User: What shape does this take?
Amino acid sequence: MHILSFDRNDLRLGINFTRMMIRDRFLGSSLGSLWAILNPALLLTIFTFVFGFIFQSRLPGAETSISFVIWLISGYGPWLAISEGIMGSTSSVVSQSGLIKNLAFKTELLPLSATMLGIVPLLVSLVVLVVLLAVDGRAPNVAWLVMPVVLLMQTLFIGGLGLILATFNVFKRDIAQILPSLLTLLLFASPIFYPIDAYPEYLRAYVLLNPFYIIANGYREPILFGRVQPLWELVYLTCLAIGTFALGLMVFRRLKSEFYGQL
Amino acid sequence: MAIALKQRPSIQCRDLTKRFIIDEKAPLWRLLANTRGLKAFEALHKITLEVPAGQFVGLLGRNGAGKSTLLRTVGGIYTPNHGFVVVNGELSALYELGITGNDQLTGREFAHRWFDVFDTGDESRSDLIEEAADFSELAEAFDRPIRSYSTGMRSRLYFALATARKAQIYVIDEVLSVGDEYFQNKCWRRIRQRLNDGGSGLIATHDWSAILKLCQTSHLIERGRIVASGPSATIVRKYLDTEEQQFSKVAAFQDAGHLQLEGRSQTDFTVEFCIDVKEAGRVFFGAAIETFMVGFGWEHVLHAEPTLVATDSGRHRLTCTFPDLPLPAGDYSLAVYLMHEDEDGARTVTDSRSWTTANGIPLKVSGPAGRAAVRWPVRVASEINA
Assistant: This one.
């Protein structure tokens, strides 16, 4: 069976690449791939500690600061997945140039496999959230079942962006250099760390179209309020995801035979 | 009913052209929209060749001639801009890059990764890994990180992995020039084994003697074009000609380049040379008859020790006689050389007609088969010792 000219063998290879990338990043450390889980877990623990116990931040109307932490992590977890995915896929082609030169395979798989790297911190965040919710006396609800759909669309969207950025990064390596700053800018431009009400009224309609906000909202709504985000958001995200992915594949496939002159 | 069963060639290349865009200043939109007019390097130009089933074909050429590009195009890594490649059978490729990736991995972990990537999962992986560990002879180093390996050890691991499972077609790029001779020999044995098992392949290497041993046919590549194709011996000769050795010619043969000699078994064989000596000094002459066999390469069969033939400048005449020429009928090559000795007694070769300098003198021997030897009392006579 072929989907967009990927077959089962490509799926197997893609999964192996993701495993390889996780392993490679932590290779040589004694805890190894455990760091893939430990790192985001530690980060989120620090967040919980700082905002929950030191700043004792509260959501408007909330009794405890734990609900603030839950609100924060339910947005920051998806963001971790987004930024890890984009960073990994952008540099994937350049950093795996040896593989590309030595093995005949669909090179699209590299940025796509790297996009999957983001799923690990997302899952860690969800586990941390389940724990925090339990402490707060709450439990996951039926609306959580929408998350796989959001995750799929998010992966397609980030995968598409990754394909484009990875392609451009082969020709202009500056892209991987500027990316961390751009992502930080993007994070602060999106209502993830702060509520959307912080924006002036006339800007809110546009901010609502920010796909990064919509992705974060896809997790936030079920986690915080036990409801699925507005349908138009899901439809919008789906269209955007499919469009970006298609565009990414087109750009990548158009230029991939020119990579070798640059690697 | 007679149907001619013609086996399909293992590899077929038609009109392969591969260009790399090397325009550093090209804006991204130009790459996306229209690559015409951008600075490009044509690495391959209309390469057409065929590897018949059950044969290894050699590729010779200097660095940057396009050998590696051709092999990668055959291996499906590069898509050609023009032309096509057909590969009939499972292909295993050893590219010149060797082991790449994270060298924190141990040899064993790398082997697992290798089969993660290459294996379709039908064969017993642990057997293949044990086989590779065994062949590479890395012993306990197999469980140490690759970063601690020497270049030779890396190439041993690479070769062992790439050839662990039997493929029908091999594409081999220069990997055999590293590693010690013992291991090189082992690798060649394995390749010969695969050849005997009916495998085919395309081999690019600077090691022309290996090409001679393995390949009936070879191609010479220059600047992305096939400039010569034919029997390996002929092509190797052409290849070496492109890397012509420079001699001082203080003492030189006078036009012996185009000689065609004929000899008869068990009969005295004599050849005459005229030499020009420009500086006074002791000039020595040496000669050898060489033969070529597929699977073994070039062998000295007769050898004449250097003999003093001149002490002063000017023109000298010398004759070289192989008494009762102890060679069976066949094609040989006569190699001759001149050495000049300076006041300090240092000898330098000043001219040579030899197969290694691509101008060996062809010698055809006819006559009945008789006794043959590798050392024979060759008499060399000149004006001094006549």
Remarks:
- The interface with chain B takes residues 9, 12-13, 16, 19-20, 23-24, 27-28, 96, 98-105, 168, 171-172, 251, 254-255, 257-258, 260-261 of chain A (CB under 8 Å).
- Residues 8-261 of chain A form one domain.
